[in-house]
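Please, is this right?
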Amino acid sequence: MKKIISLMLLIILATGCSKEGSKDEIKVEGPKKIYAEVGMLEKEEFINKANFSAKLEPYEKVTLNAKVSGDLELMKKDIGDSVKVDETIAKIEEVNFSIAHKIAKSSVNSAVNGMKSSKISLDKAKIDFDRDRKLYEEEIISKDAFERSENSYELAKNNYATAVTGVESAKNNLRLADENWANAYIKSPIAGKISYKGASVGESLNPGMKVYEVIDDTKLYAVLGVTDKYINMLSEKSVVVCRFGNIAKAGKVTNINPVMNESNGTYEVKVLIDNEDGLLKSGMLVDVKINLEKPQMLYSVPKDIVLFEGESKYIFTVLKDRTVKRTDITVKYENGEKFGILEELEGINVIKKLDPKIKENVKVTFENEE
C-alpha cells in the first residue's frame, strides 16, 4: 500500500514539473514594425508653358496680276525660282504700247504748239484791247469798235485756257501710255521665291489675271489661335520655341489681335521665326511652346506619391518621432511626372513609396534602419 501511495506522489510531482516547464517556453511578441522608404524633396525649375499647334505663313506674299491686255511674250521664272526686288519676271508684247506712246507724245507736241500760238494771239488781243479802251475813254473810237476789241480779247483768253487744258490732257494721256507700257513688264516688288505660276507664253492676258505669286520665306509667321485663358499672359517678351520634327527654332511674338474670332473663340497671335536656312516651309504645321511666366524654383513631388481626396491633394510626411502626418499640397505647375508645389518642405522627410500599411498617425521605421 505504501508503495502505491509513493508511486502516485511521484506521478503528481512529475506532472507538475512538466507544466511549469511549458509555461517558461511561451513568448510575447510586440507590435510589428512598419517599414517606410523616405527621403527629402528637392527643388527644381518649373516653367508655366502652353502648347499650341500653328500653321506657318510666309513673312511676305505678293500676287502679280496682269495690269494691261496683251499676249504674254516672256515668262522667266518657274515655281521655286528665286526672285530679286524689281526684277522683270514676265513681259507682255509691247508693240502696241510703243505705238500708243508715240501717238500720245505727238499729241503733246501738237497741244504745246497750239498753246504757244494761242498765247501769242492772247498777248496781241490784250495789247489791242488796252489801246482801244484808252481810245474809247478819250471818245476817239465808237462804243461798237471798243466792244469788238473787248470780245476779241475774251475769245483769245478762252482759246488760251482751252489750249492749256489740251496740253494737260495730252500729257495725262502720255503718262497713261507710259504707265501701260511699263505695266507690260511684270516685276516683283519683293525678293523671294516663286510659289505660283498661272500663265504661259503666248497666252492672251486681261487686267486682273494672276500671273505669279512670290513669297519671302526667309522669315515665317506661326499663326496661333489663343484662348482667353492664356491671351493676357503673352507679350513680345514671351519665350517661344517652335518645333517641326527634330527642327527647333526660337520665335518672337509680334502681333496679338485684340479682337476675338467669334467663330472659334480665340485670338490670333503671330510668332515670327527666322528661316534663313530654309528648313521650314510655308504651310507646315508646327508645335509651339510658349513660356507664360518666369521660371520658378519649387519643391518637386513625384505624382505617384500624391494622394487625392476630392479636390485636395496631399502627401505623407514623417515627424521626428517617426509619426506619419498628412500634408496637403498646393500644385502650382505640372511637369511630366512631377508636381511643382508652393509649400516649403525643407528638411522634412517624405514617404517616397506608398504602402497600404502607411497611414496618418502610425509610426514607421525607416528602411535600412534598425
